[in-house]
Amino acid sequence: MKVINTISELRAELSLHRADGKTIGLVPTMGALHNGHLSLVHRCVAGNDITVVSIFVNPTQFNDKNDLANYPRNLSADCALLEQADVDIVFAPEVSEMYPEPDNRVFDFHPLDSVMEGPFRPGHFNGVAQIVSKLFYAVEPDAAYFGEKDFQQLAIIRNMVQQLNLKINIVGCPIVREPDGLAMSSRNMLLTAEERERALIISRTLFDSLRFAADNTLDDTKSYVEDKINAVNGFRLEYFSIVNGYTLQPVSNWDDADYIVGCIALFCGNIRLIDNIKYKEVE
User: Fold this and answer.
1) If DSSP codes are grouped into helix, strand and coil, which group holds residue 10?
2) Which sequence positions are flagged as catalytic?
C-alpha cells in the first residue's frame, strides 16, 4: 500500500494502472475510520482492480470551527486498517495541496440543499461538492463509494456528477450499525459513556417508528418520532423529515412516493448525530 500526499504523484501512479487497463475505485473519507468506512472499502476492493482511499478533513464543509478543530484524526491508525483491507493507495494531502488558493466555486443544488441539513449547515454541501469534485478530478475513478447514512450528501453528489458530466458510477452503501443499533460515525468516539448509551434511543426510535408507520398516517409517524426524541433529556432535535428518497422533498402521505425515507439530526450533548430509515423502497 502506498501513501501519497500530492496530486501530481497520485496522478502519475494512477496513470500507470490506467495504462494497464485497470479499473479504479475511490472511497473519500475524512479519516477516523470505523467499520462503516471499511464496508465501503470492501465494496470498492471487490469491484475494482485498484482502490484509492482519500483521508482529508475538509475545512470548507465545516460551519463550526470548533467542530473542525475537534474532528478526530489518526492517520497512522487509519492506514493500518486500510492496509489490512487490501487498499492500494491512501491519498492523504495537506490543506495547502487541495486548496493552493481559495475555491470560490458555487454550486446550485436547489432544491436538494434547501431542506434538512441545508438550513442548519449553510454552505456545507457547497464545501462537500468542492472537495469531492477536486478528488474526482485528481483520481478520475470509474466508481466512487459513499455511505447512505449521509443520505442528503449522497443525493447531492449524484446531482453534482450529473451537472459536471462526470462518467463516474456513484455507489451508495447501506448504513453500518454497532451491534446495539447505533449508526457508526466518527463522531461517536466524542460521546461520553452516558451520551453513548443515550444515543441508542435514536435508532431504537426510528426502528419503532417503522412498525408504528404500518398502521398510522405519515404525520402521526413524524409526530411519534419527534415526541420520543424531544422527551429525552440531553437531546436537542434539529429536524426529523420524512421525504421522497429521490427529490428529498417532504411528503405528506405514504402514497406520495414509492421511495420514502425518514432523516433525523440532533445534538446528543454537544455532539451532532444523524441517522435515517427507509419506510418505503423500490425492490
Assistant:
1) helix
2) 37
C-alpha cell at 83: 492496509
Q: How many CB atoms lie within 10 A of CB 231?
A: 10
| pLDDT tens string 170-180 | 999 999 999 99
pLDDT of amino acid 77: 97
Using one digit for the tens of pLDDT, what is the confidence trace for 248-260?
Answer: 999 999 999 999 9
Closest C-alpha among 176, 105, 92, 104 to residue 138:
92
State how far the Cα of 252 lies from the Cα of 266, in Å rounded to an integer. Answer: 22
Domains of the chain: 2-173 (3.40.50.620), 186-276 (3.30.1300.10)
Residue 60 confidence (pLDDT) above 90: yes
Rounded distance between C-alpha atoms, residue 242 and residue 84, angstroms: 39
**Exposure b/e, 196-214, CB count within 10 A at least 16 = b:** bebbebbbebbeebeeebe
User: Mean pLDDT, to the nearest integer, of 123-152?
Assistant: 98
- pLDDT at residue number 249: 98
DSSP secondary structure code for residue 184 in this structure: P
Least confident of 3-7, 215-219, 279-283: 279-283
Q: What CA–CA distance (Å, rounded) separates 41 from 48?
A: 10
Give 245-266 as a DSSP string.
TTT--B-SSGGG-SSEEEEEEE
Q: Count how many residues are written for the chain.
A: 283
7 phi/psi in degrees, rounded to 5: -65, -40
> Quick one: pLDDT at residue 64?
87
DSSP at 187 = G
* Distance set, CA 196 to CA 23, 184, 267, 273 (Å): 40, 12, 12, 11
| Residue-wise DSSP of 64-125 | -HHHHHHS---HHHHHHHHHHTT-SEEE---HHHH-SS--------TTTTSSTHHHHSTTHH
Whether omega for the bond prior to residue 111 falls within 30 degrees of 0, making it cis, is yes
